[in-house]
Amino acid sequence: PEPDLTVFGDEEDDELPPGKVMPAESEGIELNSGRSLIELNVTNVGDRPIQVGSHYHFIETNKALVFDRAKSYGRRLNVASGSSVRFEPGDSKVVTLVEIAGERNVVSGNRLVDGKAT
User: SUPFAM superfamilies per the record (predicted)?
Assistant: First the structure.
């Protein structure tokens, strides 16, 4: 049997559908305002793509990424939370790194740093 469609109401009556996000109008959001930033040139010398997430301690990235690792200590990518940067084989690109904030506790990804990144 078909239900009576009038029990569901008129779709045009709803101002916002469930789950719709309506961000406030603004000039935008500045990520990591006031934090120290550096730029590094990074090259993937490997034969596979490498993707690095937003909050991964950059010094711990795949060894096929060639860059000044000492400068990346205590830093992560300066990109929105949950996003990442992908390096295809042979790619070179400049990335911006920001200081890891909060208590600066880092759990090792490749056994380079485990503890406070100070």
Answer: Urease, beta-subunit (SSF51278)
So where are the chain's domains? 27-116
Query: 97's torsion region: left (phi>0), alpha (psi -120 to 50) or beta?
Result: beta
Give this prediction's pTM: 0.72
Q: Which class is 27-116 in CATH? A: mainly beta
